[in-house]
Amino acid sequence: MTNKLLLWSLVCVGLCLIGLIIFFDSNQVEEAEGINNPALESLSSESLAAYKATEDTAPATKLRATTAVQAIPQQASDKARKSFDDAWCNAVKELSPEDIILAESQVADWDEYQGRASMKSASEINLDDVNHPNNSFVVSYQELPKAELKELASAGDKWAMVTLVQEAYGDKEFKYQIAKQLLVEGASYYALEYLVIQELSAAKSSYRRSGDTKEATDHIISALTYAFWGVENYNIAGLSSYLGVSSRGYFDGYIGPDVVLAHSSEVVKQRYNQLSTWVESEREILGITASQPSKGAINDFALNLAIRRNMNPERVEYLSEFNITENDRLNSTPCVSEFMVSLSQD
Question: Which residues contact 269 (CB under 8 A, 6 or more apart)?
Fold first, then answer.
């Protein structure tokens, strides 16, 4: 009960924060310094608020081993606990302490594979790592001269590349290409975040400049393509960025990203297929075999997706109707449905 109440409280906080964005001035640009995201320098404050409110819930979705072990006696009796090989969704409620630790280790391994290693800004350097998962993988790269970091990223150093796409400044086109390469290599977490936010930023700039939705729509389709690709590969970062940044009033109240997509479902599907084909082709050329997520990672993804569905029910439902892939992971799987029920309970 304690874990469930904590999770629900954090989700409620996220929802409240998103509600506050309507009071912000949409023309005021947030300072990039301290935001710890490479593409946010061009976003309006209401978009930033929505994005950060979404991301602030993310640490609460992890199956923290120490907390989980303490909670088990209150959650289930020995007889009620399932084997790890059984069908289960919520490790804390359903598994033994030992299997909870196994589930947590699988989530940690998947995070590492996806390149989920969060940079800290200068003002955050002494803060706890709970909101900066796997910071130890990138902290030494943050201290490098920019030219050396770029050189290492160009040479294919995974953590240099992950660090580079999180840098607040730098050559945007170069970072875009590095982000695309990270998709190929599987370290796609912050790469997807960067690509989605860059495309949405370009869409907004285009619309503000000309008032024409054609170019803006093309960028939005690209952003959504990256978000769909992430979901297909059990990566929530692209979808979180899309939902958080393309918030209410994103185009100064005149039009919303989902509206311009009303007649673009076939184009989105075509663009998605092109991206997927390109990634697979590059992997074949480079001899890269993509890792597959474990049960713990898949169930953790289901929890994250349930939280996004809870926070943005109508928008996620709208996106799920695109039916981009046969897997259709945006629609409720048994574990997503189970987590949704838990989130809806007091």
Answer: 322, 323, 324
The pLDDT confidence band at residue 254, using thresholds 50, 70 and 90, is low
At 14, is the secondary structure helix, strand, or coil? helix
- Sign of CA pseudo-dihedral 230, 234, 235, 236: positive
**Cα gap 325→242, rounded to integer Å:** 18
| Cα–Cα dist 325/20, whole Å | 34
**Helix H or strand E segment including 183:** helix 172-185
What distances in angstroms separate CA 42 from CA 51, 178, 216, 322, 334, one per listed residue? Answer: 13, 20, 15, 29, 39
pLDDT exceeds cutoff 80 at 252: no
Q: What angle do CA 112, 310, 8 make, to 5 degrees?
A: 80
What residues have CB less than 8 Å from 283, skipping those under 6 apart? 184, 289, 290
Residues 104, 219: Cα–Cα separation, whole Å = 37
Q: Report pLDDT digits (tens) over 116-152.
A: 999 887 667 667 667 788 888 999 999 899 999 999 9
* Residue tagged 């993988």 (tokens): 137
Give per-residue pLDDT as tens, 330-342: 877 889 989 998 8
Give the contacts of 19 (CB within 8 A, at least 6 positions apart).
none
The 10 Å Cβ neighbour count of residue 87 is 10
CA 164 to chain centre: 17
DSSP lists the bridge partners of residue 44 as 29
6 and 60 Cβ atoms separated by less than 8 Å: yes
If we measure between CA atoms, which residue out of 190, 173, 194 comes closest to residue 112? 190
